[in-house]
């Protein structure tokens, strides 16, 4: 079919992207009515299971709604008192602090560094070795939390635990004596696969000739990493750190290992929310804290977007 | 400054491919040396083995008489420019050039001096604060060269130095590169698949095939006197005529070949329905050979000539600028011959081709090797 001359595309003016302004065209040719019809089921599901609970959470966050008792039947609006209570709640402060430690230790340091180290060393390993290591690391990531938690409880167990057998420290109750250390170790092990995979693909974007140039001038391993590799993957480091930080901050699997104990020593914010809501029955207060956690997540994401924009 | 000695070098990849296969080579101090061959011939692997980026399986590499076969690349005193230049995009031109010095923890003030001086040598004035992305291809190449020079190696290795430039820039860069090499006097080895580039730049050329050396010589030698049909085919912008022939007479008049150093007799070789004079001392009459003659060394005339010649009619003429490549059908065999543009005959013209005996090369029909006692190169 011959192209009519008037439809020959005009080459875009450099520096001015050829973008259509105004509302998008009806590209599928369905018509508004049918398009809405196709979208409706998805919108309904999202509305019912995502948007409504979120708004509901915000709503009960300003009530004294409880699991049982009078307020379970007729909660009353208490305004911002749940929030002012959270600001003065020593246990909430404790939870925030532990979450920070958890994110810092297991995500920003643990998964990031271990993931990068694995990606960097496996790059030149024999294919059989690389595939085996990747499979093992991935396995830790894809196993269901309950299974993994059970394995780690067995690993840390005081009487017949594997760790005590290895170290010859029979009788050490790791999960009770060093709960946060255990959680950091556990989550590093559990989540490193994502960082490893992300960094593996990021490292492939570093031109081999640049690494070889560094080798030719005698750069050490550390100099090569600092001067050649990191500048190339800075954006990937940022993306990875953001994602694993958010996931770790919201992670509930610490509950499966320690239930927040002993004596709130490993009670990160998600665990605290659960304990407040279902052990203490204070649904209103826990909703308020959930909302605060959401705000914190948004702030981190905004910070990240700002950093990314500054780079480009 | 230093020479390179390579002895019995072999580089075998884990999959068993012998990319470099038992090679002996000596590059003299200050020489501009080309490794030439088709892709997959092992020339780049050889270069990388000299650099230390690939480890030699057998044999030794010596630079400045010191055995460097097992030395790390950074400790060999070798600088390398990669095909894609491998400039660091996040560093300025100045930082790129002085990166080898930064690695050695040279003081920033000294580094600034080196950047200033080297950028002057390579006409990069005023570009020191730019980033590689803001430079043209030619400028990027010069930055890569500047970085290699700043590292003050004893030997400079260039991997396909001109292939990433467009055609016009390539000629400019070629001249620049040759002058730079002469000025610096640094032993330089470069890899290329482009025979014209090798002929134009190198003091000596090593032609490689399947990891082995097929010929080693000056550009004139490999052009005028390829030592086998592979090299004959590979070198020259117009392909050499390689035609089966038979030695018809070991001597015509008993005179020695003009300029022949060994006094071999002029004989004749019959091919394509005619015959040409050739030094046939090493082949008895009746021997089957492959006759090689460059289009540039054949003379075309439209009048009859005496003595051995080929007769045929013009099929097609291709314009090469100042010259034309004329294909002549000689008894069913197409023979190429170059003529000045003003002498270009029309298709269908009957023509006679002649050549001087010293330009007609005889190759063994089976092995493709140049038969011994062929005339030496003149000029």
Poorly predicted residue ranges of chain B: 252-264
The succession of helices and strands of chain A, N to C, reads: HHHHHHHHHHHHHH
Based on the structure given, which CATH architecture of the largest domain in chain A is correct?
Answer: Orthogonal Bundle
Task: Tell me, rounded to a whole number, the average pLDDT of chain B.
Answer: 83
Looking at the structure, the CATH topology of the largest domain in chain A is: MetI-like fold
Helix proportion range of chain B: 10-25%
- Return Rg of chain B in Å: 25 Å
Span between termini of chain A: 42 Å
Q: Please state the average pLDDT score of chain A.
A: 86
Any idea what the CATH superfamily of the largest domain in chain A is called? Answer: MetI-like
Report the C-alpha radius of gyration of chain A, rounded: 26 Å
Q: In one word, what is the shape of chain A? A: globular
> Which sequence of strands runs across the widest sheet of chain B?
6-7-8-3-9-10
Q: How many distinct helices of chain A?
A: 14
Instruction: Indicate the overall shape of chain B.
Output: elongated
Explained architecture:
The complex is a heterodimer of chains A (312) and B (379). By secondary structure, chain A is mostly helical. Helix content of chain A is 70%, strand content 0%. Chain A is built from 14 helices and no strands. The longest helix of chain A is centred in the middle third of the chain and has 33 residues, at 90-122. The radius of gyration of chain A is 26 Å and the shape is globular. With 379 residues, chain B is of the alpha+beta class. Chain B folds into two domains: 4-226, Rossmann fold, CATH 3.40.50; 238-364, Beta Barrel (OB fold (Dihydrolipoamide Acetyltransferase, E2P)). Chain B has helices at 43-51, 93-97, 99-103, 108-121, 137-150, 167-184, 195-201, 219-224, 229-234; strands at residues 4-12, 18-27, 32-36, 58-63, 66-67, 78-81, 155-159, 187-192, 204-209, 212-217, 241-249, 266-271, 274-279, 288-293, 299-301, 310-319, 323-330, 333-340, 350-354, 361-364. The radius of gyration of chain B is 25 Å and the shape is elongated. Chain B starts with a strand and ends in a 15-residue tail after the last strand. Residues 252-264 of chain B have low confidence and may be disordered. The A-B interface holds A 207, 209-210, 212-220, 223, 227-228, 231-232 and B 51, 53, 72-75, 78-80, 82-86, 88-91, 99-100, 102-104, 147, 151.
């Amino acid at each position: 079919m011959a192209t009519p001359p008037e439809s020959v595309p005009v080459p875009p003016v450099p520096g001015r992207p050829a973008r259509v302004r105004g509302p998008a065209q009806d590209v599928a040719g369905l018509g508004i009515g049918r398009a809405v019809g196709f979208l409706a089921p998805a919108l309904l599901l999202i509305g019912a299971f995502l948007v409504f609970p979120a708004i509901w959470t915000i709503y009960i966050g300003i009530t004294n709604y409880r699991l049982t008792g009078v307020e379970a039947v007729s909660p009353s609006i208490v305004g911002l008192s749940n929030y002012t209570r959270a600001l003065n709640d020593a246990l909430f402060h404790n939870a925030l602090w532990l979450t920070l430690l958890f994110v810092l230790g297991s995500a920003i340091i643990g998964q990031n560094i271990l993931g990068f180290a694995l990606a960097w060393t496996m790059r030149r390993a024999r294919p059989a070795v690389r595939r085996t290591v990747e499979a093992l690391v991935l396995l830790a990531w894809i196993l269901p939390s309950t299974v993994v938690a059970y394995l780690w409880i067995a690993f840390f167990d005081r009487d017949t635990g594997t760790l005590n057998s290895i170290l010859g420290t029979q009788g050490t109750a790791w999960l009770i004596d060093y709960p946060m250390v255990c959680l950091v170790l556990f989550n590093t092990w559990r989540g490193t696969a994502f960082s490893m995979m992300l960094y593996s693909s990021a490292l492939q974007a570093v031109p081999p000739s640049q690494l070889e140039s560094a080798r030719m001038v005698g750069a050490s391993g550390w100099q090569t990493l600092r001067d050649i590799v990191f500048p190339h993957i800075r954006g990937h480091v940022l993306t990875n750190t953001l994602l694993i930080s958010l996931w770790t901050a919201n992670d509930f699997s610490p509950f499966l290992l320690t239930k927040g104990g002993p004596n709130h020593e490993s009670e990160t914010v998600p665990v605290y929310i659960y304990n407040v809501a279902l052990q203490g029955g204070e649904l209103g207060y826990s909703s308020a804290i959930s909302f605060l956690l959401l705000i914190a997540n948004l702030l981190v994401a905004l910070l990240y977007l700002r950093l990314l924009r500054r780079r480009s | 400054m230093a020479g390179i000695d390579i002895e019995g070098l072999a580089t075998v990849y884990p999959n068993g491919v012998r990319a470099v296969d038992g090679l002996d080579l000596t590059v003299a101090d200050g020489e501009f040396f080309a490794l030439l061959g088709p892709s997959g011939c092992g020339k780049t692997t050889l270069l990388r083995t000299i650099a230390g980026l690939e480890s030699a399986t057998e044999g030794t590499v010596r630079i400045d008489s010191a055995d460097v076969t097992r030395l790390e690349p950074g400790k060999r005193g070798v600088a390398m420019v990669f095909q894609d230049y491998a400039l660091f995009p996040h560093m300025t031109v100045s930082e790129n050039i002085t990166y080898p010095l930064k690695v050695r923890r040279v003081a920033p003030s000294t580094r600034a001096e080196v950047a200033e001086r080297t950028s002057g040598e390579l006409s990069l004035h005023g570009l020191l604060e730019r980033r590689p992305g803001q430079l043209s291809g030619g400028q990027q190449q010069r930055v890569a060269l500047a970085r290699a020079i700043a590292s003050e190696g004893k030997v400079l290795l260039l991997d396909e130095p001109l292939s990433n430039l467009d055609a016009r820039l390539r000629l400019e860069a070629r001249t620049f590169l040759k002058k730079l090499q002469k000025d610096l006097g640094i032993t330089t080895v470069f890899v290329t698949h482009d025979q014209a580039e090798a002929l134009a730049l190198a003091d000596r050329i090593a032609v490689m095939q399947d990891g082995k050396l097929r010929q080693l010589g000056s550009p004139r030698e490999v052009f005028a006197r390829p030592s086998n049909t592979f090299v004959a085919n590979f070198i020259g912008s117009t392909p050499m005529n390689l035609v089966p022939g038979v030695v018809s007479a070991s001597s015509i008049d008993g005179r020695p070949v003009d300029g022949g150093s060994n006094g071999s007799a002029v004989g004749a070789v019959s091919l394509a329905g005619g015959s040409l004079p050739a030094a046939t001392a090493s082949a008895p009459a009746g021997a089957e050979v492959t006759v090689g003659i460059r289009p540039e060394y054949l003379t075309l005339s439209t009048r009859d000539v005496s003595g051995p010649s080929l007769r045929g009619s013009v099929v097609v003429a291709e314009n090469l600028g100042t010259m034309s490549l004329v294909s002549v059908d000689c008894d069913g065999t197409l023979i190429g011959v170059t003529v000045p543009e003003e002498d270009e005959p029309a298709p269908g013209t009957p023509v006679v081709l002649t050549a001087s005996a010293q330009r007609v090369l005889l190759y063994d029909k089976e092995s493709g090797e140049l038969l011994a006692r062929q005339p030496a190169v003149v000029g």
